[in-house]
Amino acid sequence: MKAVKFAWNRGLGQHAVCVAALAVALSACQADQHRLAQLEATQQQQARELAALRQQLAEKEEEVAQLETCVDDLENAVYEDEGDSAAYDEEEGRPSTTTL
Question: Where is the composition biased (Acidic residues) (predicted)?
Answer without folding.
Answer: 81-92
